[in-house]
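BUG-292 | component: ligand-complex export | severity: low

The export step for heme C jobs runs without errors, but we want the raw record kept on the ticket for reference. Input record follows.
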Amino acid sequence: MKMTLSKLLAAKRPATGKKILLALAGAGLLMGAVGVNATPEQDRNSLVKFFKDKYPDVKKDSYVYGALAFDPDAKAQYDSIMDFPPFGSVLDQGKAMWETPFKNGKKYADCFPNGGKNVVGNYPYFDDKAGKVVTFEMAINACRVQNGEEAFKYNDMKTIGTLTAYARTLSDGMAMNIKVDGPAATAAYEAGKKQFYSRRGQLNFSCATCHVNNAGSRLRSEVLSPVVGQSTHWPVFRGGDKLVTLQERYFGCNKMVRATPFAPGSVEYNDLEYFHSYISNGLPLKAAVFRK
Ligand code: HEC
């Protein structure tokens, strides 16, 4: 029996998760809406246009809500949970971490312009001297090391996760503002873009398979979120209490298709985050949100 991809994605109760993924993998999906020799701005515009053409009724600004943009009931549930977030105490812990001075008396706020307010939309940026992409988490660790403290591990939700869950809220409302200037920055952006469009893993999926071509469709019980807006709201609290950073989510999505994941904090994920964030340029940030 041959089933089309859209039927597969629409099916709420496939026989098994494994079967549906294998069938999807075999379906030979389209390449994304992004050209090979395009500039970052052309990439962003063509992705925005792709979704606008496909879902004319969904406003671009609502893409910051991810899959909720396509699901008014789930969005209403989200709004009521966000009125009294169950993870409030984690944000309080993060705030205490942010405000506690280092042994030398300095604070995180001293490492950032404007005391760390309205800065996150500038991350990741490409540091020409260092020759690499710098994420907000790396800037936090650089601040620690400069002040004689040890760096946090990028996959440690109790430290970097909790701290950034609060620190990122200081930039709520700031527009994503990623810049790609010069050949080295462009090369990092292109490496991230390649990550996003490369098919990987036993199931031969790319990020774009799910978050471009099938965004807005259902995969098992989940509506797939569009790449536009996806990088604006980190970290998330899944189920209201499980803290997940953006790069932990990359890790989870890689594992979902049985690809060998990279480590959070790796060059591969930093470049991916650079491309991924650029695509949300102009959209407002909102840190620490509820997810299913
Ligand atoms: C097999 C399909 C699939 C692939 C391939 C996939 N993802 Fe996902 N991804 C999901 C599902 C399902 C979710 C949860 C529902 C949602 O929010 O999209 C998700 C969620 C996410 C989210 C969180 C969205 C939010 O608002 O909470 C991000 C970010 C993300 N994926 C990025 C990626 C990236 C980057 C890649 C490639 C490394 C990737 N995904 C590959 C299925 C996939």
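Assignee comment: Attached the raw record above. The chain has two domains: 5-84+181-291, 88-171.
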